Amino acid sequence: xxxxxxxxxxxxxxxxxxxxxxxxxxxxxxxxxxxxxxxxxxxxxxxxxxxxxxxxxxxxxxxxxxxxxxxxxxxxxxxxxxxxxxxxxxxxxxxxxxxxxxxxxxxxxxxxxxxxxxxxxxxxxxxxxxxxxxxxxxxxxxxxxxxxxxxxxxxxxxxxxxx
Length: 163
Fold this sequence. Notes:
Low-confidence stretches: none
CATH architecture: 3-Layer(aba) Sandwich
CATH class: Alpha Beta
CATH topology: Aminopeptidase
Number of helices: 5
Helix content: 25-40%
Number of strands: 7
Strand order of the largest sheet: 1-2-3-4-5-7-6
Largest sheet: 7 strands, mixed
Radius of gyration: 15 Å
């Protein structure tokens, strides 16, 4: 039986769906780097940049054959990588972010020997739950820069997976 949730590379054909999902004010609100409003042109540029980015690994998340989310990782420092994700609002509260992050962490593309970190806005209880569901531990308060402002956040860590 095929899994209901799969990860794959983004393609230029995904731009319209990405623009629709990320163009929702409530989705943008919880991310540090997604502007609002978010246009189709923004989505095209983002997907083009993904192909050229050698550090950030971003994956389209398909749920039952539909693009619904993104999960990504990138270097944090020499010994750790940072993870991030977004889910289109019509797909919230279905456990998709938790399953997508679990799938990413278990994938062969993920560096299993690295400590994994994540920063989540303090008011974003849903994303905090996603991290706790995946074995992360809250470590400290921190901040996230968004639109030139520092926003209160929480720092989570998951110790080395492959050690």
